[in-house]
Amino acid sequence: MTNQAAFDYEDLQVIAGGAASHLQKSLHIVGISTDTRSLVPGNAFIALSGEQFDGHHHISTAIEKGASLIVIERSVTGFPFSIDPSKILVVPSTLTCLGSFGWYHRRRFAIPVVAIAGAAGKTSTKDLVAHVLSSSMQVLKTQANYNNQIGTPLTLLQLTVEHQAAVIEIGTNEPGEIELLCAMVQPTIGLITNIGKEHLEKLIDLDGVEREETALFDWLRDHNGLALVNMDDERLEPYANTFTRCITFGVETGAEIHPDVSFDADVRPTIHIVHGTFTLRAPMRTHGLAAAYNATCALAVAWAMQIHPADVQSALVSYEPPSGHGYARMKVERVPGLTILNDSYNANPESMRMALRTLKRFPASRRVAVLGDMRELGTAAEEEHVHMIAEAEYNADVVILMGDEFRKASEIVNSPHVVLHETHSGCAVDLRELAGDGIVVLVKGSRGMEMERVIEALA
User: Fold this and answer.
1) Which residues of 420-432 are buried (b: 16+ CB within 10 A; e: fewer)?
2) What are the φ/ψ torsions at residue 99 (nearest 5 degrees)?
3) 234 SS3 class
4) Do 219 and 70 belong to one domain?
5) Rounded Cα distance, 119 and 171, in Å
6) pLDDT in tens, 87-143
7) Taking CA 391 as the corner, what is the angle to CA 388 and CA 396, rounded to the nearest 5 degrees?
8) Can you tell me whether residue 439 is helix, strand or coil?
9) What's the predicted TM-score (pTM) here?
10) Nearest CA-CA partner of 50 in 94, 87, 115
């Protein structure tokens, strides 16, 4: 992600404090880069370090390509090249410094900023919300699912005077991350899609997930922001009474934004809402129950931002989810003898249950669930995979499983209706044998399981 965000000496005194006092007062930065492959002259290069990479190994390349400033965590003493000390900024954490650049740049813009958090459905909700808002304004949105402490500031740094609103997805995998990202993003409107079992290795249980995700609500309450509360979620519903500025929404329960939802034969939702002058009917091109919930979130944001209902209707009708690289979010694909619900993008218990419920609704003579492990569930992994097998058996006629966690769970369940495979091609062999009229197959699993390879093997 490239950007043209500009910073000078005085800006750096706020961003980095005393560590920046030695920099040249003529310093002028245009753009922040964390990748020397896309760095252009005038950029500041921030040397991030991770498990698989270390930007400090690329300092010489950044210098050669004309970086105006190098931000590092450790001294360059002993490096096999010379460098002007006035172009080096040493900080305790380059990741934190990147966040500070994003925070500082965000403060330059007095525009509506919508933050979207939640256990499942964040990325697809963010994409749909941004599409709806783009019907009447220039909108910056998080690209793909770059919702962490690297992706979020890099997104904020793309803000320009042309933008009239921003839709920022914020994610978490450990306590305190949502609070940190809220301080960086400074949202004016916030929405939590749901509370579900995610990243339990560090968040431990549902109570931990709720505490972490609702840090967004804490930010909004403390800064007079507008909270959008999902009344269908039993853990979120009570928060509606804790705000002076709040809009409620829901599909299954009464709420301020409460559309009627129907589905066609391919489980594409039609959204119909009658809410005073905010009245519209929109048949959508997306598939599944999750698409209806995403649309309801988008309606709540559009209502809050006073988008004309005709623009909202047109945007919902025209929206098509971004195509993936083989993997997708609830995309209907067809191969000879099989209709495939490709939801292989990722999985946690909440999203997998939603996908199985969509499979149950899909018109079929026989339904097949091909499921891969759900990752990052910590000590809850065994229990959640056992529960998911039961859920799959209820919603599908045939259940095919892959992964170590599902293997262990299947040994506990010991169901004659469950088939276990070690390889994607093994799953595909079974599916070819099942092929016929009216056979519908759901393919879903965590990103690391690469369940799209089952579909590729069929092709």
Assistant:
1) bbeebebbbeebe
2) -60, -35
3) coil
4) no
5) 8
6) 999 999 999 999 999 999 999 999 999 999 998 889 999 999 999 999 999 999 999
7) 120
8) strand
9) 0.86
10) 94
Asked whether residue 40 is domain-assigned, the answer is yes
For 168, phi then psi, to 5°, come to: -120, 120
**Domain check: are 144 and 61 in the same one?**
no
Domain, as residue range, for 143: 109-318
Boundary of a domain, candidates 292, 318, 344? 318
Question: Which pairs from 261-264 meet CB under 8 Å and 24+ separation?
Answer: 261/292, 261/295, 261/296, 263/292, 263/361
Q: Average pLDDT in the 22-26 region? A: 94
pLDDT digit string, tens, across residues 283-336: 999 988 889 999 999 999 999 999 999 999 999 999 988 765 566 788 888 899
Tokens matching residue 394: 């209820």
| 3-state SS, residue 134 | coil
The C-alpha atoms of residue 117 and residue 111 are separated, in whole angstroms, by 19
For the chain, the domain total comes to 3
Q: Are residues 437 and 294 in the same domain?
A: no
141: nearest Cα among 114, 102, 179: 114
257: left (phi over 0), alpha (psi -120 to 50) or beta: beta
* Widest distance between CA atoms in the chain: 74
Which amino acid would we find at residue 186? Answer: Q
Dump the DSSP string for 372-386: EPPPS-GGGHHHHHH
Task: Write down which residue in 318, 348, 380 finishes a domain.
Answer: 318
Contact 390, 399 (CB under 8 A): no
